[in-house]
Specification:
The chain is mostly beta strands. It is built from three helices and 13 strands, in the order ααβββαββββββββββ. The termini are far apart.
Amino acid sequence: MYKYCLYILSCGLFIHHAQAESLKDSFIGDTKAFVNIYGFAADIDGKIGYQGMNYHLDQSFKDTLDSLDKALMGHFEVAKGKWGVYSDIQYVKTEEEKQVYSYPIALSTKVNLSNFGIYYRAYEQYPQGKGLVIEPTLGFIYTDLEGNLGALGKVVAVEKDWFEYFGGARFRYNTDSPWNIAAQYTYGTEQTQIAQAYVGYRQKIFSAPINFRVGYRYVSQDYKSGSFKWDTEQKGPVVGIGFAF
């Protein structure tokens, strides 16, 4: 039951504010779109369990760069009034060439961690989203994994994917200065935790509003299904650039 607590709390906040304000009034405002392209310099640590054997996954960001095959990371958002929807995609595929001896290792991995969420601006310290802003959020996470695992001179291919619901909250602090702060924490029903915090700097380039930001992200997953187990942590700095429309 504990893994549903944050999800239920977020649902409760949505319901409470929906009752306090008419749905029509909560959509008053311009429609805005945001695109943020970022790089997550993650160190990955943990293990992949399969058919009774644990395969070690210990990869620094430097090792990831050396073996990187494909990567795509981006955040997309549309907001109107106090409501917004967003999607975040983190796709990384690595390929390595190693000799397989007795020590179980992951030779290559593909990790697609995507989410889709909705949020509501439940609290704003000042009008127009100034000062502290708190936004409960709900949605679902999709994880798609592929891996080539090696041990004892043999290589096996593993594929697994799953959906899970999440609940959490977004926090922002905006002032009239170019500097801004943002953070988010979500917890999924399959124990996926994502925590992130950023410092941003807004600037107009050729009349287009641009937000440069740096921060830190932590992703923890502990998923089990039959003989398969994915127990990993990803953590490291994030650098991104955002565009508003």
